[in-house]
Amino acid sequence: MTRTVLVTGSSSGFGRATVRTFLAQGWNVVATLRDPAAWDGEASDRLLVRALDVRDESSIDTAVTAATQRFGHLDAVVNNAGMGLFSVFETTPQSVIDDLFQTNVYGPMRVIRAVLPVFQAQGGGRIVNVTSSSATVPTPLQAAYGASKAALTVFSEGLEYELADQNIQVRTVEPGFVPTTGFFTQTSARFASIPAPEAYLPYIQKQIAAFDVQPPAGYLATEDDVAATVFTAATDESGLTRFRVGGDTLDGAAARRQSDADYDAWRTAQFA
Ligand SMILES: NC(=O)c1ccc[n+]([C@@H]2O[C@H](COP(=O)([O-])OP(=O)(O)OC[C@H]3O[C@@H](n4cnc5c(N)ncnc54)[C@H](OP(=O)(O)O)[C@@H]3O)[C@@H](O)[C@H]2O)c1
User: Fold this and answer.
1) CATH number at residue 228
2) For residue range 195-248, what is the model confidence (pLDDT) as tens digits?
3) Ligand 1 binding site (Cβ under 6 Å of any ligand atom)
4) Second label for 28, Cα 20 to 30 Å away, from 91, 92, 107, 115?
5) Residues noted as catalytic
6) Range of the domain at 105
7) Distance from chain centroid for Cα 239
8) Using CA atoms, how far apart are residues 211 and 26, in angstroms rounded to an integer?
9) Closest approach atom of ligand 1 to CA 79
10) Do residues 85 and 146 touch, judged by C-beta distance below 8 A?
């Protein structure tokens, strides 16, 4: 039987590449996005494009129902939709941090609640949550963003225990920085809209200069690398729960595995 995946945040970046990858692998795909009229990607009789805002439960329920009505079953869900944030915490409005957690943490939770009854009725399913390397190695100007992705990572690992007996697996995909997506542009625009007090300016300038340093070719992941890793996370049968992608992610994870003192020395050299 042809397997079916539902992907959130399919309008651009990793989500769109993930839709492309699963279609190429022969799956049925439910590509969901906030504005389905804006879909200008693939067309296929194995593709259903539906509205889904991860902050809106009724839109999630409607998309999940449409998925099962069209394809009869749902094998995997990819919680990819997310919001970035570069800012200094002190001047970041609480409403922006609320938006961040509503999208990056409570959004996937809402989607998972909606698909669990479907997975249970079918006898199993796979949940893939797209987190970030910032969940393993918090980076400057992203304290709140890293906190949201760390929350999703910890939630995913805890949930895995609860669902294992029901043949429902939870996996995380942890991409590093991928500058080709709209993520960086939108996050930068958000940054520009949150003025920082003068005391932070030397720190901010240093961090912006660090962004201008080009890593070696092939070091950072591409959208397609991330999509391929999402596909692996959705289909892998080894029991691995955490899938990292990108040279920066792998180096950060290796640094984190050192002693606390060695990790502190590494992160100070990298970022402080
Ligand atoms: N790019 C990176 O460097 C990077 C690194 C690590 C992790 N990530 C994570 O990877 C995921 C995808 O990011 P990306 O790089 O592909 O960025 P992107 O191109 O900006 O994609 C983000 C997607 O999330 C959607 N979205 C935002 N809020 C939503 C909501 N309330 N409901 C439904 N969809 C919503 C956006 O849709 P609209 O078009 O409707 O806004 C867009 O399709 C995110 O979770 C991000 O945190 C990105």
Assistant:
1) 3.40.50.720
2) 899 999 999 999 888 888 889 999 999 999 999 999 999 999 999 999 999 999
3) 8-9, 11-15, 33-34, 53-55, 80-84, 103, 107, 130, 132, 175, 177-178, 181-183, 186
4) 107
5) 145
6) 4-271
7) 20
8) 38
9) 45
10) no
